[in-house]
């Protein structure tokens, strides 16, 4: 069955870095649109990175230049490298798969997602 398991979350000071991992099983991530999302209390879930089946990547302005999405095809694992972290980055972070490619076509809303991980908490202190 399809499964996404995030890891790597934790607490870090502003300006620090974290690398999130998402181990996928039941499908090949490189064949699909994949993304990272975050959700803070009281806010809507928003995309922070996307990588399409052609390996093209995109980011919203809020994280552009600080976050990098990548994948290791041999390990079937998705990554999110987060640098220069800010307190406003504090949220639950989720990896997700969109088998239709809707998410990777544009926008940062959680539309078209077929599978979600359960999330990993990232807390950034000042």
Summarize the structure.
With 126 residues, this protein is mostly beta strands.
Description:
The protein has no helices and 11 strands. By secondary structure, it is mainly β. The termini are far apart. The model has no long low-confidence stretch (mean pLDDT 97). The strands form 2 sheets. Strands 2, 4, 5, 6, 9, 10 and 11 form a 7-stranded mixed beta sheet that branches. The protein has a 4-stranded antiparallel beta sheet with strand order 1-3-8-7, with no helix packed on it. The relative contact order is 0.31. 0% of the residues lie in helices and 48% in strands.
Reconstruct the topology from this structure.
Elements (H helix, E strand, L loop, with lengths): L2 E5 L2 E4 L4 E8 L7 E7 L6 E6 L5 E2 L8 E6 L4 E6 L8 E8 L16 E2 L3 E6 L1
Parallel strand pairs: 2-11
Antiparallel strand pairs: 1-3, 3-8, 4-5, 4-9, 5-6, 7-8, 9-10, 9-11
Question: What would the keywords be for this entry?
Answer:
mainly beta; seven-stranded mixed β-sheet; 126 residues; globular
Secondary structure category: mainly beta
Beta-strand residue percentage: over 45%
Radius of gyration: 13 Å
Query: Low-confidence segments, ≥5 residues, pLDDT <50?
Result: none
**Secondary structure: number of strands:** 11
What number is the mean pLDDT?
97
- Which range best describes the helical content: under 10%, 10-25%, 25-40%, 40-55%, 55-70% or over 70%? under 10%
Shape: globular
The CA-CA distance between the termini, in Å, is 40 Å
Main sheet summary? 7 strands, mixed
**Discrete helix count:** 0
In sequence order, what are the helices and strands, one letter per element?
EEEEEEEEEEE
